[in-house]
Amino acid sequence: MLKFEELRSFLDEKADQFNAPDFIENDPIQIPHRFTIKQDIEIAGFLAATISWGNRKSIIKSAEKMLDMMGNAPYDFVLNYTEKDLEDIQEKSVHRTFNGQDFAYFIRQFNRIYQEHESLESLFEVRDQEVNFLHAIERFRSSFLEPEKNRTHKHISSPYKNSSAKRIIMFLRWMVRKDKRGVDFGIWENIDQKHLSIPLDVHTGNISRKLGLVLRTQNDWKTVEELDLAIRKFDSDDPAKYDFALFGLGVTKELL
Prior knowledge:
The protein has eleven helices and no strands. With 256 residues, it is mainly alpha-helical. It starts with a helix and ends with a helix.
């Protein structure tokens, strides 16, 4: 086990190594990077993050399929789609259990949200006394999802149900983190990146345990908060930069 300063130095080095433009090429974050308009970035990013489970090449291919269905103009499509457009989409497959019905549901909800809000940022704002996105994600779920039960609801994870909410946490990193490395966008101005957590998946979870950052064996919200406590000791202002280190170490199998 590395001592505190050795571990921080090691993780800083790895975060610096993987937080570089060439990271974009093989990661779902390349999807929102195809756009410059804020709302296009948000919509493309949220959709790409939502289907981010499984093989990364497959995720990117499925996200490209969604962009094609929206004429590669997500914001314009969300505002101006016709019912015929959505009928066509509902008949198509998208990515694993995320199907055309789910995609059409998301488009309807985006339309409603953007009628009322300039950006998705206002639905994720962290309130005073809150230290992470636990309650913000639940407030977003309440705003985005209709009250009636729907199969699509399972695609928006709930930390109140102890989900790690990996895909939403990843999307938040993309939108909130500000640096000059060119990977994360940092287009949301009113949310402090100190509240971000690590998107917890097989890779980041396994590496976190191997490095002694967490003890819990499940990849759930309680483990997200356990990891928060550890990584914020290394950098309380920008804890999510260590996602690059943990994910990169997991993918390259450097520690195996």
